[in-house]
Amino acid sequence: MNKFVKVIFLLFSLQVLLFSCGLKYSPPESIEQIQSNRRLMLEQQLTTQFATVHKKYTSLEYGEALTVKPLTYMRLDSLFEIKYQRSKINLPTKDLEPLIEAQKMMLLSDTTEILFMETNWFELQSDSILEYMIARCYLNNANVLRKIEFVDDFTTGLSNQTWARKYMKEEWFTQNVGITPSSDAQFYTLAKTREFALKDQQKNVFLNRIFEVMKIANELSSLNAKDICMKLIQTDAPKTSKGINLQDYTVEFQKLIDMSNNIVGYRCRFYLKADNTEAFTLNYDTCFQLI
């Protein structure tokens, strides 16, 4: 009994000693915490780097994340996977041991870093010019940015900031519902499919019209094609036919259908009210670009 009391006292004394030294158990970081820290470090580095060229960096969204391992690591992983699959069905794995050990030795001499790739959507602002970019950012185990690959980019004006951010993040723009309605999502898919095929100024012109359409759709709370076209012609018609007064015309809206019964565009025919003669026509594609 006396020996038992001594053990209890010893354990209690050890606990007091550890407490007095300020030692405490710290659980390992979760995968979510590790990724959150990595993204925070990435944003700090990009903020600093772009500040050197007088551009303000703002992170908007993250996409795909990958661990990029050197070939030696991948080969070792492959050997372990083969060993695991064999052991599951009771097949011998002894012949794999020398291969695994040899690969471990090769790994020890490989100085290539394991990199963690984060896909980042971000905004750069310089005066009234906004640049939007999608980039694959590669960081090492110490969260140091090693490499950056640009996937897509475009430029627009400060007046389009709200719509450009929504476009990048694919947020709702017709109805304030918190989630993106299917109509908005379909519009994004259509627009981005077209956008990715364009470059430089062509892309910027295309997207500026997309942002104009998003603003109109937001005001209408709808992506109704006729309503949007009726809004667009108010600025498009005077540009294409100088000096006209829209009040002098009636407008006929028509969907353009192909042989497979798909909508491929929209047509607005203008008729003079005075004698009902056709004056001119404006044609739009399904992204509401003038054609």
Question: What features would you describe in this structure?
Answer:
α7 (200-220) packs across α8 (225-240). The protein has eight helices and seven strands. The chain has a four-stranded antiparallel sheet with strand order 1-2-3-4. The chain has a three-stranded antiparallel sheet with strand order 5-6-7, covered by helices on one side. Helices cover 45% and strands 26% of the residues. Mean pLDDT is 87; it is low at 3-14. It is of the alpha+beta class and 291 residues long.
| Overall helicity | 40-55%
Number of strands: 7
Distance between the termini: 97 Å
Shape: elongated
What's the Cα radius of gyration? 31 Å
Summarize this, please?
The protein has 291 residues and is α+β, with helices and mostly antiparallel strands. The protein contains eight helices and seven strands.
State the main characteristics.
single chain; 291 residues; alpha+beta; 4-stranded antiparallel sheet; 3-stranded antiparallel sheet; 8 helices; 45% helix; elongated; disordered N terminus
Fold topology:
Layout: H1 2-20, H2 31-51, E1 56-68, H3 71-88, H4 96-108, E2 115-126, E3 129-139, E4 145-157, H5 161-169, H6 182-195, H7 200-220, H8 225-240, E5 249-257, E6 263-272, E7 278-285
Antiparallel strand pairs: 1-2, 2-3, 3-4, 5-6, 6-7
Helix pairs in contact: 3-4, 7-8
